[in-house]
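As noted in the main text, all predictions were made from sequence alone. Below is one such record, for FAD-binding FR-type domain-containing protein.
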Amino acid sequence: MAPRFADALPDALPLPGHGPVTDFGTLLNYTNDAEPYTHGLEGVDQSANWVFAKVLFVSFMALLAITLGYRWVHMGTMHIRHLMTMGRWEGQRYWMYNHSHFWPRVKKSLLYAPLGHQRHNREIQLSKAVSIGTLPSRFHTILLVLYLASNIAYCLVQNWSRSNSSSVVAELRGRTGMLAVLNLIPTVLFALRNNPLIPLLKVSYDTFNLFHRWCARVVIFEVTVHTICWGVNSLNAGGLYQVRVSLATSTSYLWGMVSMCTFAVVFLTGLSPVRHAFYETFLNVHRLLVWLALVGVYIHLDKANLPQLPYVQLCIGFWLAEWVWRISRICYHNASRQRGITKITVEALPAEACRVTFDLSRSWRWKPGCHVHAYLPQFALWSSHPFSIAWAENRPRSPPLEMEMEKMASLNNSVNNHSTDGPSMVTRDSMYSRHSMMGAPPHTIATIAEVTHKAGRANIALPRDAACTSVSLVMRARTGMTRKLYDKASASPTGTITTWGAIEGPYGGHDSMTSYGTVILFAGGVGITHCVGYVHHLMLQYQAGTASTQKILLVWSVPNTEALEWVRVWMDNILRMEGRRDVLRIQLFVTKPRHRGEVISNTGSVQMFPGRCNPNTIIEKEMQERIGAMGVTVCGPGAFADSVRAAVRNVVTEGAVDFVEEAFTY
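Prediction:
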């Protein structure tokens, strides 16, 4: 039988305003009952497809509206509390307590609750080398289940009583195709670092990244079902030969198949064990594969003249606009004709870490609790990695005048004289570590932090018109870029190296914590970088009388005292601040001390303990002595963060307590 070509087919159903469906290749057996359902919109219920697409869109918008309403109420409450209690503790008694039983129970049982008993951000390890990721929270799980169930329901709501099974398959093909393309929009949007919903809703990128992964899995599932349905009808119409001919003679089908296969590879390479084992490689390959898949979907829809094409155009538009915005910000803050490219100083520290200081080319806006993505091309090419900002300060672009130099000299002399008997984070065994590690005599070493972070010059409350900004990070050596960086710096005779690069950000930092009368900051290991900026910011606001905060407790769990060197210069600066003893206490827990005499405390407000931290005991004690509302934040390993979350949930019904977790569960 002679084949019939696409141009000779008269019965392709037209779409309003879009014309007929085209480019479905050569048809071999047009007398078979399944043949009409192998192409075009025969058997596809377009009216129902549009209805379910609108329902899915309305569901997303309703969730966004509810979240936005909750955030506005929460921010309004914090703002009123801040105005009524700013700079004093007498009026904070009202804000200590919950004024309803409903909302504290919602926070305990839903918003702050892990999926099970306690595990949330603690990774599930199949072995030391294989991790399958973390568990979503209870609230996120409910949202994901509703999302998955609604997509499955939308696919299954069709007329299953049709006598011709091929028409049922065709309807399922059309439904899954429509939903797959529509779900591409949140999949791409939620993956963007500069997703506009993040600052609008005050929801972390980590949460959107979780939803991105599940939206992508739904898209891949629906794309697979869509392709299978087309293959089933094509096989019934003309066998495997019809499938091969259709792919060979139709550009739309060919690129649709390319897109489906690419999505399958994306799914396999995105599995948690693979993603975590080869994360830097995964990111680069993932972006290339997704671009190929989007191009395939675009050509598939464009050649067939299908009405879902604007959805893909919107996805590509989001992605391109975000990349243009990111590149523009990176270039603006990290390159200028006067100062050139951002200069980076890397200083090796004890306990296998580096202090990395970025001297930016232009001013940069800092917020407490924020993080940046660091680019170091000499060590990681174009890849970037997220790090919390440990310290930020202004540096004048031009040298100071002679009068300013005299004032600075007298101020530094007074600080140096005071530092001999003032509080310090230094322990008995940590004094030697920086010099002995470098292999140089003490008088030849002047660390970058000691030179640049003098008490008289530090300013972490950055004005918008700052001439230049210096941003410091602490990078713990693990694998990949951080390991290369530490090895290169520690091998240097002076323990420091200089390079060039850029930072991108800031991201996060949605709550300054200044509206809480009591603030508790938990840090595990290098998570201290998230908390140091908060402590300094709160102290500055306390001194200025513009914060409600009257009590600050910093709890830091470290494996050994050498890790104290990571932030020593900055913490010494904070410990010398006026009024520090009235508001700030620090508790250090050294989990693996070499001997008991190593763990000492120089002042009553800086306490050191051997062993592990017990967040439950600390929070219960602070609840009895709190002033006003209490805010608790944590940044550290997953198991440590989960224990802090559990401790907060135990007391959330006893008083006004809010919990904020900083996590990078990529």
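The first helix runs from residue 46 to 85. The CA atoms of residues 551 and 582 lie 8 Å apart. These features were considered when defining construct boundaries for the mutagenesis experiments described in Section 2.9.
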